[in-house]
Amino acid sequence: MKIGIVSDGAYGDRAYELIREKFPTEWIMAPFPSGMMVDDIDLPLPECDLFISYVRHPDVALAIIDKQKPVILGVSFGPGFLRQAKGINENIVAAPTMCSLEDNTWVPEINEFAKVFGRPVFDVTVKDDGTIGSVRVLRGSPCGSTVEASKELPGTTLSAEQLQHYGLRICHFCRAPRLGKTCDKEVSGLLHIRELVRAIGAVSPSVAERVKPFTDEMEKVMEEKMHRA
Hints:
By secondary structure, the chain is an alpha/beta fold. The protein has helices spanning 13-19, 58-65, 79-88, 108-114, 145-150, 160-173, 185-203, 205-209, 212-228, and strands at residues 3-7, 25-29, 50-53, 71-73, 92-93, 121-126, 132-139. The strands form 2 sheets. A 5-stranded parallel sheet has the order 2-1-3-4-5, with helices on both faces. A two-stranded antiparallel ribbon has the order 6-7. The radius of gyration is 18 Å and the shape is elongated. The protein starts with a strand and ends with a helix.
């Protein structure tokens, strides 16, 4: 499967470097029009099975969508835009964040991509005292934040403070642009904390139980943010 990363130069470069390690991938530069409304955008695209759009102008994004290939919106413009986009091409996905993408969509190409990049999946070892032994990222963010922040986990002890720090490190490495309602660095951090604790709970429920008050509060915050999206 060949993937096209479409960018106007601001976002997508790190994702391109990581995705190309797993899939044949092409970097495609698109214009960034200065006007709010643009007619008749000429956007020639190479033949690809899936496009990931990091463009910041909705009319350019629509030009990509109009090619009738599956598209993942790395930069989204809200639910109204998504409804308009699906009227042109139904095979569009705009996940809350790129690290929340899952391989359960109706689009085979997006599912194939999301088996490798998307909602974090960890293989962890942990000692009875809560010390994390090893962390292997089985699936993570295409921007690399999952891998980079998780390198710092071995040797740390699970606690609310440690999880808060981990979430902040995810935000630090995260490349989610603060554009549109579905790009939120904080959601990325909270999502990673949730999946890390789930992985720890799978191998040591008693250790994960120690941070349950913190994770319960975190879930409330995440639910509120996702409801507003």
